[in-house]
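Before drawing any conclusions, I looked closely at one protein, both as residues and as discrete backbone shape codes, quoted below without any editing:
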Amino acid sequence: MNKKTAVILLSGGLDSTTVLAIARSRGFDCACLSFRYGQRQDIELDRASAISRHQGVQRHLILRLDLDAIGGSALTTDTPVPKNRPFAEMEGQIPVTYVPGRNIIFLSHALAWAEVLGAADIFLGINAVDYSGYPDCRPEFLAAFAKMADLGTKAGSEGTPFQLHAPLLEMSKREIIQTGLKLGVDYSMTHSCYDPVGELACGCCDACLLRLKGFAEAGLKDPLRYVQGRD
């Protein structure tokens, strides 16, 4: 019996790696899609490549997008990455690490590749619980994109609707970690930091703080290597 193909948006981070494991556990033949978009944390692409190989993925496409030419984000410019923000502040405002249109752009490329592959399923790791307030991580955004996908593609217009899977949408970071561990995810291979120091995570940016909080709430030590004194 042939497996159904799904396109997985894989950044190399904790969430997307968990999503890849979930998709594989559901029996999908996974085609992973990553982006070199001018991000300062491009170490994540090395991790994404290693993770896809480790999980037995046969197709891993890394596309080049020059979002740094557009700018507008601390991840694609020299703007300082916020450090040590309180969790309440993360929930209350959109930070400068927001990349304008990123999930719209990423999903559009995933949609195009899925149509070429004959795949109707796309998985992504957006989360609306433990996150940094990004507007493109909300369920309303996902529902709107799914409707657009069916209206704006040959497959959708011919009666093959796309399914956008966001299995982590309502999970806390603790629940995500626990789910991944049950599926055999090796979180030491992942990378989450927005402002790494070489191969070390800074331990102070929003992504690091949320990750450390999730492991602490799960009663576990994060296997990621941090700048001394931050783990």
User: Anything to note?
Assistant: The chain is about 40% helix and 10% strand. The mean pLDDT is 93. The two ends are 45 Å apart (CA to CA). Residues 102-117 form the longest helix (16 residues).
